[in-house]
Design a protein that fits this description.
Helices cover 57% and strands 8% of the residues. It has 398 residues and is α/β, with parallel strands linked by helices. Helix 13 packs across helix 14.
């Protein structure tokens, strides 16, 4: 990939990630996303009030590279505890039972990590591992602040972390979901390698009809996110208007604000004018989802992309031609310098020969200088310098 293309792709990914962060930063939308898309039983009944966004806690550890990601701390209800007391000492059993009793009184927490991707990232498992380590280390620090040395006890357990990749690309997700596969000879040395599997929610695994049938706001946003070319726009316009309107009939304003942001991003992506964008935003505010793209003139994304690609190709061609012209100019300069050096060397050789001949004829220094001036067109100072240089050479050679 060319550097310019890579920069454009990175900007597009960045914008997409920021939108995803805004969407999943809303507890209502996040709860809908987890209930509908992550096939884990303990998340099937998660509610907005069970979700705490703790993303900012890990920024100092991870830096700006991870600023578009979200980390949720989720309160899980009705979790059965398993007692393996017969395998422990009396002291350990009492300590663990006390710990489990506290956990039952205070609902368990599952930390859910959500990563957003629009292209397949083969190193995502390593990125997720960085998060998981930060979360566990921070959790240990938090527990130790409440009770000194608690994490050193046999009965202490770290919280579950569910890594989730939300993937919006059309191509299949081809990266291996098991961390061990990222390590050389990982299967051979599996006993010494940490391992986990992450969940992938691939947007394009869901049909428009399936998302429409769900009837919630997160599914509406996913419908918007599926629009990546003119064909997608055409398919969206075929959806029943009344069904789309029902998806936001009772939506809180805070969620409408998020949908507006997603709509603005979508309009920018499909090349809508400012006026068309404002009309779409107004219809979102009015909860008229079925009329979003009505009267919109500029919808040919493929043509826009083709024009952009052609313009980029022309720019690349012009750049190559300019570089070639520069190389040719440099080559001419090198040849000219070479010719000049050879001419100077030839001239010096001739001067040296004349000096040798005149010295052999017992001509005085002054006579030889005058002869050099006349024969080679040098001024007196230059002629004298040449005689000074080669006079000794001739003398030495005699």
């Amino acid at each position: 990939m060319k550097e310019n293309d890579r920069q454009i792709a990175n900007k597009t990914d960045k914008k997409r990630d920021i939108n995803s962060k805004m969407v999943l930063g809303n507890p209502i939308l996040c709860a809908q996303f987890l209930r509908r898309n992550v096939d884990i039983p303990c998340l099937k009944n998660v509610q907005p009030e069970d979700i705490e966004d703790v993303s900012e806690r890990y920024r100092p550890y991870l830096g700006t590279e991870f600023e578009s990601d979200t980390v949720k701390r989720i309160r899980i209800h009705d979790v059965k505890m398993k007692d393996n007391s017969d395998q422990r000492t009396t002291s350990d059993r009492m300590d663990s039972q006390a710990s489990e009793s506290n956990r039952l009184q205070e609902p368990l927490f599952v930390v859910s990590l959500t990563e957003h991707k629009s292209r397949v990232d083969y190193d995502v498992s390593m990125q997720l591992l960085k998060y998981m380590l930060c979360i566990w280390l921070d959790y240990s620090k938090e527990m130790k602040a409440q009770k000194a040395g608690v994490s050193d006890r046999k009965g202490f357990r770290y919280p579950v972390i569910i890594p989730v990749v939300y993937y919006e690309g059309k191509a299949p997700w081809t990266a291996d979901r098991q961390f061990r596969s990222r390590i050389f000879q990982g299967e051979l040395f599996k006993d010494w390698i940490p391992d986990f599997t992450y969940e992938v929610v691939r947007l394009h695994d869901y049909s428009n009809e399936e998302l429409l049938e769900r009837g919630d706001e997160m599914s509406l946003i996913m419908l918007f996110n599926k629009i990546q070319d003119a064909v997608d726009v055409s398919e969206f316009l075929k959806l029943p208007q009344e069904k789309l309107d029902e998806m936001v009939r009772d939506t809180p304003e805070t969620v409408i604000d998020v949908i507006v942001s997603v709509m603005e991003s979508l309009c920018s992506k499909i090349g809508a004018t400012d006026k068309e964008t404002q009309e779409c935003v107004s219809r979102v505010r009015e909860r008229r989802m079925g009329y979003l793209f009505e009267n919109m003139e500029k919808m040919n994304i493929q043509e826009e992309r083709r024009n952009t690609a052609e313009a980029r190709a022309e720019a690349e061609k012009a750049k190559r031609e300019l570089e070639e012209a520069k190389r040719e100019v440099e080559e001419v300069k090198r040849e000219a310098e070479k010719f000049k050096r050879e001419a100077e060397e030839s001239k010096d050789s001739a001067i040296q020969s004349v000096i040798r001949i005149l010295q052999g004829l017992n001509k005085s220094r002054a006579e030889i200088i005058q002869k050099i001036i006349e024969e080679f067109g040098l001024d007196r100072e230059k002629a004298q310098q040449k005689v000074d240089i080669y006079w000794n050479d001739v003398t030495d050679s005699l």
